[in-house]
Amino acid sequence: MSKFWSSAVKRSDPYIPGEQLNDPKIIKLNTNENPYPPSPLVLDAIKKEADQSLRLYPSPTVDELRNEIADYYGLGKDSVFIGNGSDEVLAFSFMAFFESGRKIRYPEVSYSFYPVYAKLFNIPVEEVPLQADFSIQASDFHSSEGGVIFPNPNAPTSLYLQLEAIEDILQHNRDRVVIVDEAYIDFAEESAVKLLHKYDNLLVIQTMSKSRSLAGLRLGFALGSPELIEGLIRIKDSFNSYTIDRLAIAGGIAAMKDKVYFEATREKIKRTRIWATQELRKRGFNVLPSQANFLFATHPDKEASSLYEQLKENKILVRYFNKPLINEYLRITIGTEVEMDTFFQVLDKLLKK
Ligand code: PMP
């Protein structure tokens, strides 16, 4: 502890991200990145933008990219907010819609950044246990004091919550904001964006990090009523009006435009997911039915922590959470078919031991 630190720094309990090792030989199945490169149009657009114009500030209102995202969803530009990765959008949302005197609710097993923001911004929490099968029960989220947030599909469980259940949560929190963190939604059935016209308390947060292969560019966005979006803009402008740089804006627009590439890569990942689920089950794993770009799996006879270590020794990185309730599980990002083949070859060797 430093005597110079504010109480906010003292409260902080920073999120520890998954390992980012620089060894190119490593098969990286640990942080749910897309195994395929971004659309070639994205790279062209960034190269084109990397010129004299970098001298100038980017657009503080990011109108062009907001319009592109709004068009994709059939919304108005004033229903779209863009941030530097959805982590930033989440942080701004906690500040804009949650309060220090009112407890917010999120699932006990969900994205581990939520408790970090809550602590930093002094927001009290009620962590809601999941059902025995790891599913979310909507009625547990009725009448929250201060609002609700959950990922859909949930991370790290990979399970999808149906829109009827989300509507139920929205209806029972009319005066509070319900944030649906849809980081993985493009690999799932359907987005809660469909409900926006009915619920002014709904904020949907998405990212270009996963389905659009742009984790390195840091682009996330929120979709909601103009009232909620205005709240986010006010918070952003109180920190930094220019959170999105010129290269990211150019790349993001190109990524939204290239629908053909987007569809092709997400379909490939969904096909590999079905195949990899079957392969894990053949080897005795219990695998949750995933609607994300990762699998959550446990083996009855093998400790998850030692499998994680042994895979790592063999240059395959998966995610292991040393936390109660989930410490028997591995979270495995869907890689390319070739990467997954290697993963299964190594796994077979380890399972024989
Ligand atoms: N929400 C969830 C549930 C996630 O798993 C992640 C990725 N770690 C994020 C948000 C943040 O993604 P990004 O900041 O890359 O948009």
From TrEMBL:
Pathway: Amino-acid biosynthesis; L-histidine biosynthesis; L-histidine from 5-phospho-alpha-D-ribose 1-diphosphate: step 7/9. Its EC number is 2.6.1.9. Gene3D superfamilies: Aspartate Aminotransferase, domain 1 (3.90.1150.10), Type I PLP-dependent aspartate aminotransferase-like (Major domain) (3.40.640.10). It holds the Pfam family Aminotran_1_2. The keyword Membrane does not apply. Keywords: Amino-acid biosynthesis, Aminotransferase, Histidine biosynthesis, Pyridoxal phosphate, Transferase. HAMAP family: HisC_aminotrans_2 (MF_01023). This is Histidinol-phosphate aminotransferase.
